[in-house]
């Protein structure tokens, strides 16, 4: 029993340190999770803000705010018409969606003046929930994230459905079967 505690700590530590660390994120690299079941699809996209809007600090100028709003609108309004295109006969609808910029939480950095390239890192967490009128198993989905967010370089796609699989996508449009 004496050896038990140190061992479990040893196992836990690496997992904790990998948590929400943004210092090591790779610009242009995104992670996309698509969970398809019956008539619903859950989408979760995470990655450096730079890949969505071209910078990682909080938008402050009018132009930066417009850039952010455009990227956000694309996700919330054009999700099913541009980013994730499914057969129209399925009659899929967005139930909920969110698009948030998460700034690295580092109090020491608050003392520095945040200049454009001061090394601030942030991520965008985008989520959406979709329901369709028909079962979506074996239906195709055209993922056009890279086409509409051109700063994205590669997307690690985790597809959870009838045939779970993981792939690295570098195409402007990736066609998959759910
Ligand atoms: Zn970054």
Task: Describe the 3D structure.
This protein is of the alpha+beta class. The chain has a domain at 36-104 and 115-136 and 148-153. 25% of the residues lie in helices and 35% in strands. It has a 6-stranded mixed beta sheet. Strands 3-6-9 form a 3-stranded antiparallel beta sheet. A hairpin with a 4-residue loop joins strand 7 (154-160) and strand 8 (165-169). The longest helix has 16 residues, at 62-77. The protein starts with a helix and ends with a strand. The site of zinc ion has 6 residues, from loops.
Main β-sheet description: 6 strands, mixed
State the helicity in percent bands: 10-25%
Compute the gyration radius: what is it? 19 Å
Across the major sheet, the strand order is 4-5-2-1-7-8
Q: Care to count the β-strands?
A: 9
Poorly predicted runs are: 1-21, 107-116
Oligomeric assembly = single chain
What does the overall shape look like? Answer: globular
| Distinct helical segment count | 5
Write out the distinct hetero groups bound to the structure: zinc ion
What would you call the structural class?
A: alpha+beta
- Summed over residues and divided by their number, the pLDDT gives a mean of 85
The sequence of SSEs as H and E is HEEHHHEEEEHEEE
Distance between the termini: 47 Å
Q: Give the DSSP E fraction (strand runs of 2 or more residues).
A: 25-35%
Task: Provide a brief overview of the structure.
The chain has 178 residues and is α+β, with helices and mostly antiparallel strands.
Topology at a glance:
Elements (H helix, E strand, L loop, with lengths): L3 H15 L10 E9 L2 E9 L1 H4 L8 H16 L1 H5 E3 L6 E11 L18 E10 L8 E4 L1 H4 L5 E7 L4 E5 L4 E4 L1
Parallel strand pairs: 1-7
Antiparallel strand pairs: 1-2, 2-5, 3-6, 4-5, 6-9, 7-8
The chain binds zinc ion (ZN).
């Amino acid at each position: 029993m004496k050896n038990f505690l140190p061992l479990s700590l040893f196992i836990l530590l690496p997992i904790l340190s990998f948590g929400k660390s943004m210092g090591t994120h790779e610009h242009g690299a995104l992670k996309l999770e698509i969970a398809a079941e019956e008539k619903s699809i859950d989408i979760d996209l995470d990655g450096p803000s730079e890949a969505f809007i071209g910078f990682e600090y909080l938008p402050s100028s009018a132009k930066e705010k417009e850039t952010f709003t455009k990227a956000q609108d694309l996700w919330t309004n054009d999700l099913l018409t541009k980013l994730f295109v499914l057969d129209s006969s399925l009659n899929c609808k967005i139930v909920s969606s969110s698009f948030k910029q998460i700034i690295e939480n580092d109090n020491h950095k608050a003392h520095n003046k945040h200049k454009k390239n001061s090394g601030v890192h942030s991520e965008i967490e985008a989520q959406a929930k979709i329901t369709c009128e028909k079962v979506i198993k074996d239906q195709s989905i055209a993922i056009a994230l890279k086409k509409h967010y051109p700063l994205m370089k590669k997307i690690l796609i985790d597809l959870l459905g009838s045939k779970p699989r993981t792939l690295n996508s570098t195409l402007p449009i990736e066609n998959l079967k759910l």
